[in-house]
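Lecture notes, unit on protein representations.

Consider one protein chain, 263 amino acids long.
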Amino acid sequence: MKSIEELDRWIGAKVKGWSARLGGGDSHSPAVLEIHRDILEDVRDRLEPKGQGRYFFPYNHIVIHLGAADTAQEGLYRAAFGDGETLSNEIRALLAEAGTAGAKLAIELEIAVDAALAWTGPPFRIDYFNQKQGSEPSIASARPAAKLVVIKGEADAAEYPVIANRVNVGRMKEVFGEKEGLRRCNDVAFAEAEITVSREHAFLTYDPSTGRFRICDDQSHRGTSIFREGRRIDVPKGSRRGTQLRSGDEIHLGDARLRFEID
């Protein structure tokens, strides 16, 4: 049984070892290795705490859809991931490291040309199911009611309901470029005086296929982080995948702070 930080180090070691085993060629390019890491991190994010530093994995069937932009990229992915056996074994090993059973987990890997998936952030989607024997899997439900509450910093409202699958966060309501004019509207807008918040600081997303909220940093100057149960989690700068949010998380944007709540 390991902490989240220890699981992160375990994932890093696995990806490094996987790269060494692949040897030369495009099949171990940084992009492919990043996909491999992101898939393991997505599964890690689905671990649920059950107290006393322990976790459980509330699913028994996952389907990984990997989208390629064209047939050449599809061939690259098939060369790198094969039939998915290595990836499946590492997912089960990750769950074992977390102290939760993964031996009975059914894992499927589907690789296909899917330009829409290939160009929307991480080029994969993972469907998670808790499937009773003989039943059909069901996709996560519609977006739950959620809100962002301002707990530090001056903003144009005290709290903001999450009413879309993407919510922009930054300084000032409207962001203008020198040449292109209006280029962004912030749904959560901090005052112009809040100079530690970038104009295009971060954005929150909701994925209907997984039922998860995530926070992504938009290459902000002071960075974005989450405080959860007294622990700091840094959000990678510029990552389209971002970091999963949980109800009660405190989001730090420079010196400003928001609390994420699911009703």
